[in-house]
């Protein structure tokens, strides 16, 4: 057999093997060495065009950039922007609170949000898949994130159920919480004592809506009205996410934009109300001394942290449906600032309305105390000489009452306390800080009863709350379903329905008569500390284990430009340090603050703080432990090779980028084959340089642990490739 026939057979055999490997990795055509420009003496052959693999490889994709931005905005902008941020702003120094919040948004919020968007977009996987590929030993990050999403989704949808109940109750005039109910005792009609001691809106919330018990230990049975409301809430969420982003993306067009329409309407209407300017002025009057308190910075960091939805997995899941070259840096900055300005807008609305309510309450206080003074004057307990001549009790203003109150207090210094007069200061009413359900279902609803056409505004307000909650729930559910769909071949619709059914059944815990106390428990313990630990491990795994320099190079390859070098230092040093301080402060706060809840005492018609019983305390710490348990379990299992690292499940687009790196190595190997060194001389493999943010120093990618980060994509070349023979 001629020699040239053997050579031909060997070349055909090698070509077949090369093509098989390429097909397995990226479905690309093999590199044709005979057509290479470095093949000296061979005739130039026509290059076969490579087959381009679609970037999404069947993975769902957003219909438009606007749809994606609205989804991220809908997820990050939630109920906390309306009822948590205004409370923190008022509590922590008014306008002065905005300074630490904005600083922490820049040094923690935007960088970490950008990081989550980037890893999701690059690897095109949900939270479990992403952290399995970034650092297999820390793959429990994704599982913990999923569990926190589950805990939060359980009670968050209960709040949507409450909003649905109030929404349907708003279609009547007068509003059912505008007046106290009348109890008939034979021929005698009296006001309900519990309502008379508190207020109409407070009574409607605690008694007619929740029908709450006095302690968490008293179950009281299921509240049928709340069970039905919760069922409706889960049906809405299920329909919104049943088709994945194909259905939720369309829902976001309405659920993300409608709240802004309502907020602007409320702002315009609120500014027309008497006293609204007093509320806004009180809100933004800075108390600069508050900025020196560490607690203010801790609460600002926590609010930044949760406002952007960091660590929940929804951010990563949404970004995984993007194109690989999408400008996620622009998205991170845009969504973060939209979130911030939404919080400012909501604060203006809330305090415009609360300023109106404070004026009403102050006028009511003046009227009631003026009647007391008139009684004391008629019974000669007080002398008419004490009343200034220009004061007219039939039209008593707040300033006139303040003058009369001051005179009486000065003259009757010894027996003033027995008179039972109140100062009726507007500042005192404005300082009554309310948050959460107390703001939405008590304070705000009470203010709306004094609006003209109050049912219309009530319908708009609670429909806005439903949409705000729905946007966040869609992101939460996506953070749960996307990792599962990535890991297992499960029908999307079946998985979504099963998740919603299980969540509804578990959610029955929150719709018993004591369910409000369990909502408080889950809100305090299921997400705070576990989620902070999840995010700091995300940060460490990317910047310290995978490598910040390598990550910056990946971003340049993906975006087409190198992000500012400030991110290098924020990711590597500033953010981890801030998160460690936040975790430490959170643990200290949990240690010094007695664990408990505010219970509604029916006999007193007011809230009283109560400590958790032992079983409830054990439940609180179980929530924290269960949420963090996947972290050590996965670490131990991967360390002892008891669990696969998931490297065989890389997305096609990610494998394609890996194949390009392998092709580059093959071209370099070809050069070395032609320009062969002297016998016995070893030639090292040229490695791809990873430059620093400054662009003046390279780093060896193998200087980082190949067994812990991107093991499948960035492993060292095999020994046969390092030493040509």
From TrEMBL:
Instruction: Please give the GO cellular component terms listed in this UniProt entry.
Output: plasma membrane; synaptic vesicle
In this chain, composition skew of type Polar residues spans 699-708
> What's the name of the protein?
Transporter
Supply the alphabetized keyword list.
Glycoprotein, Membrane, Metal-binding, Sodium, Symport, Transmembrane, Transmembrane helix, Transport
Q: Where is the composition biased (Pro residues)?
A: 716-725
On whether Membrane is a keyword of this UniProt record, the answer is yes
Annotated membrane topology is: Multi-pass membrane protein
Q: Where does Na(+) bind?
A: 74, 77, 81, 339, 468, 472
**Biological process (GO) annotations?**
alanine transport; glycine transport; L-leucine transport; proline transport; sodium ion transmembrane transport
SUPFAM superfamilies reported in the protein's UniProt record: SNF-like
Location of the region described as Disordered in the Swiss-Prot/TrEMBL record: 685-725
Q: Which residues cross the membrane?
A: 68-86, 98-119, 140-168, 226-246, 253-272, 300-321, 333-354, 456-482, 494-513, 525-547, 568-592, 612-637
Cross-referenced InterPro entries:
Na/ntran_symport (IPR000175), Neutral_aa_SLC6 (IPR002438), SNS_sf (IPR037272)
Note the NCBIfam families from the entry.
Answer: Na_transp
Any one Pfam family match given in the protein's UniProt record, by short name: SNF
List the subcellular locations.
Answer: Membrane
Provide the family line: Belongs to the sodium:neurotransmitter symporter (SNF) (TC 2.A.22) family.
Which Gene Ontology terms cover its molecular function? metal ion binding; symporter activity
């Amino acid at each position: 057999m001629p020699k040239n026939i053997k050579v031909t057979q060997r070349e055909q055999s090698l070509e077949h093997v090369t093509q098989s490997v390429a097909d397995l990795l990226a479905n690309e055509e093999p590199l044709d060495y005979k057509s290479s420009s470095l093949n000296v003496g061979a005739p130039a052959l026509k290059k076969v065009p490579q087959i381009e693999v679609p970037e999404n490889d069947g993975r769902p994709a957003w219909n438009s950039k606007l749809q994606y931005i609205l989804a991220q905005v809908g997820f990050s902008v939630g109920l906390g922007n309306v009822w948590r941020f205004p409370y923190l702003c008022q509590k922590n120094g008014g306008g002065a609170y905005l300074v630490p919040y904005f600083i922490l948004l820049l040094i923690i919020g935007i960088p970490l949000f950008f990081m989550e968007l980037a890893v999701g977009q690059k690897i095109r996987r949900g939270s479990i898949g992403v952290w399995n590929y970034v650092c297999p030993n820390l793959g429990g990050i994704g599982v913990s994130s999923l569990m926190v999403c589950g805990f939060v989704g359980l009670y968050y949808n209960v709040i949507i159920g409450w909003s649905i109940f109030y929404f349907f109750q708003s279609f009547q005039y007068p509003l059912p919480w505008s007046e106290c109910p009348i109890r008939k005792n034979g021929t005698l009609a009296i006001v309900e004592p519990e309502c008379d001691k508190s207020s109409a809106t407070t009574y409607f919330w605690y008694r007619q809506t929740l029908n709450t018990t006095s302690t968490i230990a008293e179950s009281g049975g299921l509240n049928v009205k709340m069970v039905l409301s919760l069922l409706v809430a889960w049906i809405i969420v299920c329909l919104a996410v049943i088709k994945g982003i194909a259905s939720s993306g369309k829902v976001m067009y309405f659920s993300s934009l409608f709240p802004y329409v309502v907020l602007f309407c409320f702002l315009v209407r609120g500014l027309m109300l008497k006293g609204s300017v007093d509320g806004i002025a009180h809100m933004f009057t800075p108390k600069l001394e508050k900025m020196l308190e560490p607690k203010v910075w801790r609460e600002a960091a926590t609010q930044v942290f949760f406002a952007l939805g960091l660590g929940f997995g929804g951010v990563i899941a949404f970004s995984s449906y993007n194109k690989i070259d999408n400008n996620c840096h622009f998205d991170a900055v845009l969504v973060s600032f939209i979130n911030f300005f939404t919080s400012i807008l909501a604060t203006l609305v809330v305090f415009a309305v609360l300023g109106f309510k404070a004026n009403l309450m102050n006028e009511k206080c003046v009227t009631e105390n003026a009647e007391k003074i008139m009684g004391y004057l008629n019974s000669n307990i007080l002398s008419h000489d004490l009343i200034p001549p220009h004061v007219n009790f039939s039209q008593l203003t707040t300033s006139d009452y303040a003058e009369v109150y001051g005179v009486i207090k000065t003259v009757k210094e010894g027996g003033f306390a027995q008179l039972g007069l109140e100062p009726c200061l507007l500042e005192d009413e404005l300082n009554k800080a309310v948050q959460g359900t107390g703001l939405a279902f008590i304070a705000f609803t009470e203010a709306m009863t004094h609006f003209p056409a109050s049912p219309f505004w009530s319908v708009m307000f609670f429909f806005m709350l439903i949409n705000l909650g729905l946007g966040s729930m869609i992101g939460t559910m996506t953070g749960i379903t996307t990792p599962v769909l990535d890991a297992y071949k499960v029908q999307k619709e079946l998985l979504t329905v099963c998740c919603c059914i299980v969540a509804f059944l578990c959610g029955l815990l929150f719709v018993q008569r004591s369910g409000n106390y369990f909502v408080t428990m889950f809100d305090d313990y299921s997400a705070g500390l576990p989620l902070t630990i999840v995010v700091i491990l995300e940060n460490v795994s990317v910047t310290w284990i995978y490598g910040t320099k390598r990550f910056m190079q990946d971003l340049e390859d993906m975006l087409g430009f190198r992000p500012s070098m400030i991110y290098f230092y924020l990711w590597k040093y500033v953010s981890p340090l801030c998160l460690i301080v936040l975790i430490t402060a959170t643990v200290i706060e949990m240690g010094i603050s007695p664990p408990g809840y505010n219970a509604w005492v029916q006999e007193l018609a007011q809230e009283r703080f109560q400590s958790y019983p032992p079983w409830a305390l054990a439940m609180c710490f179980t929530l924290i432990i269960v949420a963090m348990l996947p972290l050590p379990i996965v670490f131990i299992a991967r360390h002892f090779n008891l669990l696969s690292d998931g490297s065989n499940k890389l997305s096609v687009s990610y494998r394609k980028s890996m194949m390009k790196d392998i092709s580059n190595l093959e071209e370099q190997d070809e050069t070395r084959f032609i320009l062969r060194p002297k016998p016995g001389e070893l030639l090292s493999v040229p490695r791809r340089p990873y430059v620093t943010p400054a662009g003046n120093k390279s780093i060896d990618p193998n200087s980082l642990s190949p067994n812990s980060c991107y093991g499948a994509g960035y492993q060292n070349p095999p020994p046969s490739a390092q030493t040509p023979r």
